Amino acid sequence: MRYLRPFKFGAAMLAGAFALVGCDAVEPETPPTKPQARPNAMVRAPLPDGPSEASQNLARYYTRVENDLVAQGLMRRDGGGVDTPFTDTDLLRNFIRIGFFEEYQRDKGLLPSESGPVAIKKWTGPVRIGVEFGRNVPDAIKSTERARVAAYANRLARITGHPISVSDASPNFVVMFMSNEDAAQSRARALEVIPAIAKSNLAIVTNLPRSTQCFVISAGIRSENDLGVALAYIRTELTDLQRLACIHEEIAQGLGLTNDSPRARPSIFNDDEEFALLTTHDEMLLEALYNPALTPGMGLEEARPILRRLFERGAS
Fold it and tell me: What global pTM score does this model have?
């Protein structure tokens, strides 16, 4: 999840049993239904003529935030270069912190986690990404973001070798672009996608603080570590670059890299916001995660020698 500090925001990940990415998602007593391609019909009030004052204020705020970060040399889009070297040792250390630790306590909203390493979480079945929009989202944003998510899904499929695509047919990874006025629709959709969502996490969906730009929730279906459903939320009041950064981070974290590390560089899995978009370093973490030698539920000590071999072969 991307959240904001005063004029500085960082990546974070919610954590909760059967709710949020970064958690040991447990199989619910009532298995979640398959996500529908579109929200259920509901009683609809007439749409406003334009963005509300609240939405306009949010948009101005996020523009100021981005301008401040860019002025500091942050929000880079180059993926890293000669100024950001990393070794196989760096990759191993960063994978362990990002892939084996949780940032927040399960079912406790945004309370920091103090737990030790957990098991690997990843998807074993195809990832079908559905792109959806709130009723108050402008058409121009819809066309842009659909294309961006599709392009990113193709990139992730190439990196991981895993079937990842955009599809309106029974999507299991729903990416919602919602405005400030779409809270009721967001709540209804979250309950459809993940019926057993924790109340503390549903509260974040329906009453999003200004400091939160976007987030992702994921859960296991067949087993607690075999991810099978996810829901990403992205504010449409964000700037163009901020929305793109949210696409990159939330979908990547929803695939199983659930934590952040202050030592990860160049990386979007770092609260310093130096990089806005997925980097070469991050691609290597995702490639390793989806290597067949790593399986859902595998512990750190079992995975460590496998990861060491993978990164020794592939690090720059």
Answer: 0.85
